[in-house]
Amino acid sequence: MTIEFTKERMYKVQEIINKYPAGKQKSALLPVLHLAQEQFNGWLDVPVMDYVAGLLKLDPIEVYEVASFYSMYNLKPVGKYVFEVCQTGPCMLNGSDDIIHYIKNKLKISEGETTADGMFTLKTVECLGACGYAPMMQLGKHYREHLTPAKVDEIVEECRKQAATAANGNGYLS
Amino acid sequence: MSKKLLLEKAHIEGIKSYPVYRREGGYVSVEKALKMKPEEIVEEVKVSGLRGRGGAGFPTGMKWSFLAKPEGVPRYLVCNADESEPGTFKDRYLMEFIPHLLIEGMIASSYALGCNSSYIYIRGEYHWIADILEEAIQEAKDNGWLGDNIQGSGFSCNVYVQRGAGAYICGEETALLESLEGKRGNPRIKPPFPAVKGLWDCPTVVNNVETIAAVVPIINQGGAAYASIGVGKSTGTKLISACGNINKPGVYEIDMTISVEEFIFSDTYCGGIPNGKRLKACIPGGSSVPILPANLLLTTAKGEKRMMNYESLADGGFATGTMMGSGGFIVLDEDQCIVKHTYTLARFYRHESCGQCSPCREGTGWMEKILWNIEQGKGKMSDIDLLWDIQRKIEGNTICPLGDAAAWPVAAAIRHFRDEFEWHVNNPDLCTLQNYGLAHYADPVYVPAT
């Protein structure tokens, strides 16, 4: 796999850099890492981070230390669909433990694991700011709220259908 | 019913789009502002008594007046939309439903502070909301409210959105600036304060979403009119995001004159507790502020009705009071376990500690482990004192307030619910099967009027 942004993404990178004063392109690091993760299978491999470092004229370590600090960057491969289920106080009060337990049983994976077919990863996360609509998870760009086992079933079904029909792409529901 | 200043029009159909927002009186504050001198706007904000809505409650006008203005150095306004305090989802609501209000506030505030480039730093998980804001910015630009020479005033301004990537600590203003500069979110030592040395070492004001949105009604109606709403130093309106065990979770705009009891039990707000359960405890201002048992929540130690405002919630200090904080209102019913709930918060702070200061980096992990042991029936009586000791050694001993934020929930849980912790230690088998329940500390039991 050649590591290079698509033309469309390169244009976005330039647009992002233009938001800052000249010479401050390091500020673009977080948004550009988001773009990289989206294009390169949902995680940041070392060559991908090195590529981003080159683009922004940074030392690779400046990219590694940032990628490892923020929880949204995945430093290991993940499935096509990542279920990021909130488990903090307000979600816990509304049964997030049961939802996590249900997903584990249904997909036969533990937290941080990916199903054998590479479809689903389960991640537990801390407060995503949806406390009034608990329990919830993030899936791609959007939140799935007021979760119930039945809703989880629907979401899994929806992902499987999308994966079966999508010609390519990384599978993120957006 | 409380007066609404921010969300009054949030549910008008199409309000997300520029034409409808403008039709409903949008961007009038910018027109008005551009005809005023910047320092007159700062004065109006001072008069309004507006206090920072992110959690600390610092007077906004004062913060603005601290901004250094050296010749030839750009100044920046940064909007803190990194809403991550458990229980808090008010900024999200505002940005999702009435995004132009924030953009309007950003333009007027940028003019008041003399900033030509302003940034909205939004938590990375609010991905779709960043898109909503980008769209609103584009519309504002297309209609001459952003860009060069806005409305012929000679003032130029651009507003940019930057997404974070999952770090609670970036809600702390100096960590946010570090992150905006493309670095790890490690808070800076203050002083220098951002007002002197902020984004890219330039003078910077960092304000919460709700604070910046509140500048719009302040300019429209005048600072004095804004100050006439509310009570004492709790002026204007406050967004409260209510969650936990209540019938009507959601975001409510209140004018800070209602009681906590009314807020929880009235159908206008939370609508009481589901399934006829009784109130056990509440964290009224986001997970960092002290939890209070039902009796102290509804009535202060002096025997007065506790009100939903900065002063009344803080009445009694941390011994018998709490804080308004960010307005993240978490309600626990009689079936909830204080130890388990406190454990999830301790885990949260351990996860979110940036790791710079050892009391916080190490202490948050110790507290999490000890709480887990107690919750699992593996705790010792001495663990409760150990927890107390650890939280005391974190508080005040770190660069940023995350240490305090991690210490306070543990301290308050032990202060008010020590018997529940002891019950866990004394009943190691039972505590994994059932919860402690209400016990005596919830008295007097609230019975809603029928």
Q: How many E-type strands of chain B?
A: 11
Distance separating the two termini of chain B: 20 Å
Strand order of the largest sheet of chain B: 8-7-11-9-10
Give the total of domains of chain A.
Answer: 2
Regarding CATH, which class of the largest domain in chain B? Alpha Beta
Helix content of chain A: 40-55%
Structural class category of chain B: alpha/beta
**Rounded mean pLDDT score of chain A:** 94
Number of domains of chain B: 3
- Name the CATH architecture of the largest domain in chain B: 3-Layer(aba) Sandwich
* Gap from first CA to last CA of chain A: 24 Å
Low-confidence stretches of chain B: 441-450
State the shape of chain B: globular
What's the helix count of chain B? 18
- Tell me the CATH topology of the largest domain in chain A: Glutaredoxin
Mean pLDDT of chain B: 95
Of all chain pairs, the largest interface belongs to: A-B, 42 and 56 residues
Query: What's the β-strand tally of chain A?
Result: 4
CATH class of the largest domain in chain A: Alpha Beta
For CATH, the homologous superfamily of the largest domain in chain A is named as: Glutaredoxin
Task: Tell me what you see in this structure.
The complex is a heterodimer of chains A (174) and B (450). The mean pLDDT of chain A is 94. With 174 residues, chain A is α+β, with helices and mostly antiparallel strands. Chain A has seven helices and four strands. In chain A, a hairpin with a 2-residue loop joins strand 3 (137-139) and strand 4. Chain A has helices at 7-17, 29-39, 46-55, 60-67, 89-93, 96-107, 149-165; strands at residues 81-86, 120-125, 137-139, 142-144. Chain A has a four-stranded mixed beta sheet, with helices on one face. Chain A has two domains: 7-67, Arc Repressor Mutant, subunit A (Orthogonal Bundle); 81-165, Glutaredoxin. Chain B is of the alpha/beta class. Chain B has three domains: 18-228, NADH-ubiquinone oxidoreductase 51kDa subunit (Rossmann fold, 3-Layer(aba) Sandwich), CATH 3.40.50; 234-336, Ubiquitin-like (UB roll) (Roll); 338-441, de novo design (two linked rop proteins). Chain B is 42% helix and 12% strand. In chain B, the strands form three sheets. Chain B has a five-stranded mixed beta sheet. A four-stranded parallel beta sheet of chain B has the order 3-2-1-4, with helices on both faces. A two-stranded antiparallel sheet of chain B has the order 5-6. In chain B, helix 5 crosses helix 6 (99-113), helix 16 runs antiparallel to helix 17 and helix 17 (381-394) runs antiparallel to helix 18 (402-426). The model of chain B is unreliable at 441-450 (pLDDT under 50). Classes of the chains: A alpha+beta (174), B alpha/beta (450). At the A-B interface, helix 2, helix 4 and helix 5 of A face strand 3, strand 7, strand 11 and helix 15 of B.
